[in-house]
Amino acid sequence: MAEKEPYDYLALATADVDITLAINQKSNVIERSRENTVIHTGDDESEERIILSSTPVFFFSWDWTRLTESDAGTILDLYHTSAQGRGKSFKCVHLGHTYVVRFDIELGRSGPLALWYGIPGVRLKVLGRIADA
């Protein structure tokens, strides 16, 4: 495992709602990142960089293919209800750290197959981190 992870690059943040998403289903996770920079290329191929922030932008993505109805319902509730969803940020546990995130997708759900549900392509934009205890 690498000695650095997203937690090491992010500032402390506070979530809009005090809810923590902690789905312990085994699935592949994809961590993506990009710099918060805009690069303009001129006609002569010269480049001008505008650095919007020195903090990188991270995204966590999962293809949860086997969730219980309860876990799938928790995710849908977190996405849709006015008290906690609709673009508000919340906490998410990922690899032993707690991050402040928000959904960055249109959410879909598949199922039921023997009482298992799937939520493919869940993508969370990471807004910051919660200090480790």
Shape: globular
Q: What is the share of helical residues?
A: under 10%
Rg result:
17 Å
The total of beta strands comes to 9
Proportion of strand residues: over 45%
> What count of helical segments does DSSP give?
1
The domain tally reads: 1
What number is the mean pLDDT? 86
Question: Helix/strand/pairing class, anyone?
Answer: mainly beta
Element pattern in H and E:
EEEEEHEEEE
Low-confidence stretches: none
Please describe the structure with a list of short key phrases separated by commas or semicolons.
7-stranded mixed sheet; two-stranded antiparallel sheet; 45% strand; mainly beta; 133 residues
Q: What does this molecule look like?
A:
With 133 residues, the protein is mainly β. It has one helix spanning 69-80, and strands spanning 20-21, 29-34, 37-41, 47-51, 57-68, 90-94, 97-103, 110-113, 116-129. The strands form 2 sheets. Strands 1, 2, 5, 6, 7, 8 and 9 form a 7-stranded mixed β-sheet that branches. The chain starts with 19 loop residues before the first strand and ends with a strand.
Write the layout of secondary structure elements.
Elements (H helix, E strand, L loop, with lengths): L19 E2 L7 E6 L2 E5 L5 E5 L5 E12 H12 L9 E5 L2 E7 L6 E4 L2 E14 L4
Parallel strand pairs: 1-6
Antiparallel strand pairs: 2-5, 3-4, 5-9, 6-7, 7-9, 8-9
